[in-house]
Amino acid sequence: MLTTSHGFSGFSVTDIDEAERFYRDVLGLEVTRNEMGILDIELPGGAHAIAYPKDDHVPAVFTILNFAVDDIDVAVDELTAAGVTLERYQGMPQDERGVMRGKAADRGPDIAWFLDPSGNVLSVLSD
Predict the structure, then answer these.
(1) Burial class, 124, CB count within 10 angstroms (exposed 0-12 / middle 13-18 / buried 19+)
(2) Taking the model in full, what pTM does it have?
(3) Residue pLDDT, tens place only, 57-104
(4) Residue 111: which of 120, 122, 119 has the closest Cα?
(5) What CATH number belongs to 9-126?
(6) What are the structural domain ranges in the chain?
(7) How many CB atoms lie within 10 A of CB 46?
(8) b/e burial code for range 11-27 (CB count within 10 A of at least 16 → b)
(9) Could you write out the DSSP letters of every residue in 60-91?
(10) pLDDT the model gives residue 25
């Protein structure tokens, strides 16, 4: 087995200042910047992710961060009030709010996707 002290995820962004404002001010996460200009984003539950600037950044086409919520509709309302637009995916059974209602169909969690300012995919989900 691999012996480690902890783990974290990392992803790139186009504009580190814009990313810092989004993760701190829009999502309400604790964000610090280290001496190399890399963001340390504290996730709910105590895990961390780092975001680093990359000149040739290409947005992730998959979900890089999932945020578990108690009530998907409250989370969607909070995101919308903060100016976040939910993503719509052709062929996905999303409702008028952009939520895929998996619980009602006994097919997983209720989930909604949105993008950070660099185009990386994030989600809120409730199971």
Answers:
(1) buried
(2) 0.91
(3) 999 989 999 999 999 999 999 999 999 999 999 988 999 999 999 888
(4) 122
(5) 3.10.180.10
(6) 9-126
(7) 7
(8) bbbbebeebbebbeebb
(9) -SSEEEEEE-S-HHHHHHHHHHTTPPBP--TT
(10) 97
